[in-house]
């Protein structure tokens, strides 16, 4: 009984002190941890179609369809069944797939959660934060030094 009264007193003390722990979303954007795993972003220009992301995915979220010359034709990702384990991002040798901090995605049906490579390419960054620029160690020395523009930047 004393424990119950102590816990209620603590709750009331925090409730009446005027400080708030909530964010008025969507009017105010919440602070997201730098390690947060949100919706994926895919770069077809970087991808070498090694299929490592498809092989490492624990629940077959990623499907890659290739033609006879081993060129990638389709890259499909079902974000509705993804567990955001980040294994696909870690295994990619050229950073072609990244998990953004974007958590703002909705759908009316589960079929709308199946995204192709064009839809993944157009996923917006959260607050314009590019995770490649904040990475340690700097991987820019060996990734993306070729000619032409990249779709991430």
From TrEMBL:
It comes from the Archaea. Pfam families: Fer4_7 (PF12838). InterPro entries: 4Fe4S_Fe-S-bd, 4Fe4S_Fe_S_CS, NADH_quinone_OxRdtase_chainI. Keywords: 4Fe-4S, Iron, Iron-sulfur, Metal-binding, Repeat, Ubiquinone. It comes from Halococcus thailandensis JCM 13552. One of its GO terms (cellular component) is membrane. GO terms for biological process: aerobic respiration. The keyword Coiled coil does not apply. This is NADH dehydrogenase subunit I (Ubiquinone). GO terms for molecular function: 4 iron, 4 sulfur cluster binding; metal ion binding; NADH dehydrogenase activity. Residues 132-153 are annotated as: Disordered. Residues 38-67, 73-102 form the 4Fe-4S ferredoxin-type domain.
